[in-house]
Design brief:
It is a single chain. By secondary structure, this protein is α/β, with parallel strands linked by helices. The protein has a domain of 62 residues: DNA polymerase, domain 1. It is 41% helix and 15% strand. It contains ten helices and seven strands. The longest helix has 25 residues. The chain is globular.
Length: 285
Amino acid sequence: MVIDLHVHTAFSDGTQTPSELMSEASMEGIDVVGITDHDTTAGWAPAEAAARVYGLGLVRGMEISCRHEGISVHLLSYLHDPYDTGLAEVVEETRRARLDRTHLIIDRLAEDYPIDMDAVLAVSGEDATIGRPHIADALVAADIVESRTEAFASILSSRGKYHVSLPTIDPITAIALIREAGGVSIFAHPRAAMRGLVVPDTAMTEFITAGLDGLEVDHRDNPPAEREVMRRLAHEHELIITGSSDYHGTGKPNRLGEHTTTDHMFSQLLERAGTRHGGVDFIQG
């Protein structure tokens, strides 16, 4: 099977509806898709309906924003209960923090550029988890930059004067909440140094000790040499190894299915989820 467990829709910072995404996945020969929008499960229901139309397997997930000692960490939660109180409350708080941060960034940008919240909402839609990619899209729409990539490399750089950090929970807390909600936790693009600082090996050990289930090893933002380091670490600790595209439609150059997860590792993910009470099921294609 061709299994891509990390894709985004317009319910966060992707550019396609779940139906459009599933249609493209079908045309590209993908068998199983993992919907992992940022800090939201709002896309699960339409993704399920579309998956059944196109005969695709669907893993319902979410990418959770975390921070460890000032370093951004993203955790992929798969097959958790979306109504679990502990995890749902934290995610809702993060969504509110994202919106507050967006207002702060826009206030700073407005001193130098013709941009406001209405411009961001015009490109994001009301149901999306608002974030910096939508600010980038507003900058593109205003002909200030040509692409999201250019926006993040310049105006929206984390090292620039317009940047505002997102207050979020520690990954160790998130790992516990995911498990309590019946889900499986995977550390997304753990060595993506091009995005900013990455956590040191000591932190990685802490996450594993806390119950981290796996590592997203095969991802374009992990340098090849680091992928092998992560693969050895995963084997040493019997962690699940995933590979994914982190596809965002036209929002990023990542291609659907450019990295995938093996059948064996996917079976391990499903088996681990099956041992935990309260999660949701994998939807067969």
